[in-house]
Amino acid sequence: MGESVLTAGFAPADGALACEGVSLETIAHEVGTPVFIYSAGAIRDAYTRLDRVLAPVPHRLHYSVKANSSLAVLALVHSLGAGVDIVSGGELHRARLAGLTGPDIVFSGVGKTERELREALAAGILLFNVESEGELRLLDRVAGDMRLTAPVALRVNPEVSVDTPHHYTRTGERGDKFGVPYGDALAVGRLAFTLPHTRLLGLDMHIGSQVSSVDPYRDGMLRLLELVDDLRAAGAPDLRYLDIGGGLAVTYDAEDPIDLDAYAATVLPNAAASALKLLVEPGRYLVGNAGVLLTRVLYRKEGGGREFVITDAGMNDLLRPSHYNAYHRIDSVRPRGGRTRADIVGPVCESGDFVALGREVDDVRPGDLLAIRSAGAYGFAMSSNYNSRPRAAEVMVDGDRFAVITAREQYEDLVRRETVHPTWRTA
Ligand code: LLP
Fold it and tell me: Which of 240, 289, 367, 394 has its CA 20 to 30 A from that of 142?
C-alpha cells in the first residue's frame, strides 16, 4: 500500500518518468526547471479515499491551505467537495479567489490579527478556531463593532503525546503554543457562549503533522468528548462541530502512511458519540505524494572525499530537507542504470542547502533530470527568494494534458516592490 500511494500519479513510460499521461521530459522542455508538478488524479484519489472512510458520519474535509496554496489546487479540492482551513488573511484571499465562500472556510492560527478577524467576519466564515482567551475577547469586540455574531470553535490543546518525525511538527502536547491549555478550556468555552457577540459552535484540535499512529487521535478525541459533556452540562446551547485537525501521515520512504481503516475505526465511533458534525483538516494527505519537484543536474564534482550532484533546485525551492532533515525520495527521470552515492545539493550559498546527503542515486550526468518525490505538500508553499532566486513554476497534469498553474517568477518580480530611491519621511 505504501509503495502504490507513494508513486501515485507518477510511473515510467517509454523509459522516462511520466506524470499520468505526460512525460516529465516534455514538461522540463516546455516549462523549464525547477518546476513543481502535481497529478490531479492523485489528489482526487487521496480525497476520495479519505472522504469514503469517513462516510458513515456527517463530515466535511477542510483542506489545509498551507500545505499547497496554489489557486488551481484549491479549486480542484473544492470541486471535489472540500472546504478549507486557513491560517491568514492571505489564505482567505486565495481561498475566495479559488471560488470558496464563507461557509466553506474555517480559520485556525494562534496569532490572528484584528484585521484578519474583520476580514473573516465580513466573509461570513463557518468557524473561527479560537486559540486563546485574548483572541476570543478581541473577536467579540470586533464582531460587536460590525454588528455580527462570530461563530467559534474552541481550539483546545488536548495535551496528549504525539510522535512525528520532527518536534517542530507536534502541536498537541502540553506546553505547545497552540490552542487553549486543556485545564482552561471549560472556562474559556463558557466565556465563548456567554460573550454577547460570539457563539460557541464547536471544539477543535490539531495534534501535529505527519502523524502515523492513530493513538493520539483517539486520546485527543476522548479529551474533547469529555469537554463536550462538560460544556453541555454548563449550558452550552449550540454545539455542532467537532474539528479534529489534520496531520495524517503519508509515505516518503518506506515508512507506513497512516492506516486509514484504523483511523476510521478510531474516529468514527467518537464522532458518532459526540453527535456533532466531524470536520477534518488534511493538508499533506491530499497533496503530498501527488507532487514532485523536477530539477536538472547542473554539475557533478568531488571534494574532500565526498561526491556531489549539484542541481538547479535548492533549499529556497524545497526547504524540508534542511529545515526538518526530511527524507524525499529522488528518482532519475531517465535512469542510466549505474548507481552512485552522493550528496544532492542546490546552488544556494549555505552548506545546509541539500536535498539528500550520502544518498545512493542513479549515476546521473549534467543535464539529466531528477524528480524529487512527495513534494506536493510544504514544497512550493514554503519556498522563498533566498539568494534572489525566482520561485519555480508549478504545473498540473490531468490525464494527457498539462497546464502551468503558476508561472515561473522573473527577475522583475523579485524587485517589483522595492526602490533604489527611497522616499524619506521625517519623524
Ligand atoms: N490544521 C492545522 C491547524 C494545522 O496547523 C495544520 C498543519 C494542518 C491542519 C494540516 O496538517 P497536515 O494534514 O498537512 O499534516 N511544514 C511542515 C508541516 C507543518 C504543518 C503545520 N500545520 C512540513 O513540511 O512537514
Answer: 240
Q: What is the DSSP letter of 349?
A: S
Structural domain span for residue 346 = 3-39+288-414
Same domain, 252 and 123: yes
* pLDDT value for 160: 84
Burial 238-247 (b: 16+ CB within 10 A, else e): ebbbbbbbbb
Residue 7 lies in a domain: yes
Q: Are 275 and 311 members of one domain? A: no
Domain co-membership, 213 together with 117: yes
Is the Cβ atom of 245 under 6 angstroms away from ligand 1?
A: yes
Evaluate whether 125 touches 152 at the Cβ level (below 8 Å): no
Q: Residue 397 pairs with which residues in a beta bridge?
A: 39, 402
The model carries a pTM of 0.97
> Cβ(89) to ligand 1 under 6 A?
no
Rounded CA separation 149/199 (Å): 7
pLDDT tier, 2 (very low <50, low <70, confident <90, very high otherwise): very low
The C-alpha atoms of residue 128 and residue 131 are separated, in whole angstroms, by 9
pLDDT exceeds 60 at position 3 = no
Answer with the one of 241, 262, 284 that is the final residue of a domain: 284
pLDDT, tens digit, 9 for 90 and up, residues 174-219: 888 889 999 999 999 999 999 999 999 999 999 999 999 999 999 9
Calculate what percentage of the chain has a pLDDT beyond 70.
98
How many structural domains is the chain composed of?
2
Whether 29 and 46 share a structural domain:
no
Q: What is the CATH number of the domain that holds 239?
A: 3.20.20.10
What per-residue confidence (pLDDT) applies to 169? 85
- Cell 477534518, located at residue: 280
Mutate to test the pocket of ligand 1, among 284, 383, 384 (most ligand atoms within 8 A of CB): 284
Judge residue 268's burial from the number of C-beta atoms within 10 Å of its C-beta, 0-12 exposed, 13-18 middle, 19 or more buried: middle
Q: Rounded to the nearest whole angstrom, what is the distance from the C-alpha of residue 352 to the centroid of ligand 1?
A: 23
